[in-house]
Amino acid sequence: TNPAVPITPHQIAVSALEAADAGAAMVHIHVRDPQTGAPSGELDLYRQVVDEIQASGSDVIVNLTTGWGGRFVPSAADPRMADPACNFTGPAERTLHIAELRPEVCSLDVATFNFGTDAFLNSPAHLTEMAAVIRTAGALPEIEVFEAGHVRLAAHLIETGVLAAPGHFQF
User: Fold this and answer.
1) Can you give the pTM of this predicted structure?
2) What are phi and psi of 109, to 5 degrees?
3) What's 88-154 look like in SS3?
4) What's the CA gap between 27 and 75, in Å, rounded?
5) Which of 16, 21, 69, 158 is the most exposed place for a label (fewest CB within 10 A)?
6) What is the pLDDT of residues 82-124, one digit of tens each?
7) How far apart are CA 40 and CA 33, in angstroms?
8) pLDDT tens track for 119-161
9) CA-to-CA distance for 96 and 133, rounded, in angstroms?
10) How does strand 61-64 pair with strand 118-120?
């Protein structure tokens, strides 16, 4: 783990507030297991970060990730099965903190792609479920695209009403 990366909820909140003090209008939040430093999707960790940022009185916009839980690592013995290093979960788990904490903005990676040596999976069915939770929570989805094909999938999701127009993209 990089020692410069904030690990605990307090460190993450302080880093976000320092960014706001330096002029950032929005902070994108991922959380980590405070004991191991490994990426986490734990609701309570997100809650601690969001509560500390809000308690500070800062007007910075909090943008929570929905990326945790999208990493699929195939088993070497049977590639159809997940390796223990896999954190792949379903849409409900990936958006629980959005439903509970109702941030102004949250990310929504709209496609599947290679991420390092692993695959990051986002099926259209999962995206549809995640988009519904995001909409119900009143959050604005920041549509994350990593290549041109992702833009077409996002456009399809907008055209079919899964995501609201005009769509807010991060390239």
Assistant:
1) 0.92
2) -75, 120
3) CCCHHHHHHHHHHHCCCEEEEECCCEEECCEEECCCHHHHHHHHHHHHHHCCEEEEECCCHHHHHHH
4) 35
5) 21
6) 999 999 999 999 999 999 999 999 999 998 988 888 899 999 9
7) 6
8) 999 999 999 999 999 999 999 999 999 888 899 999 999 999 9
9) 8
10) unpaired
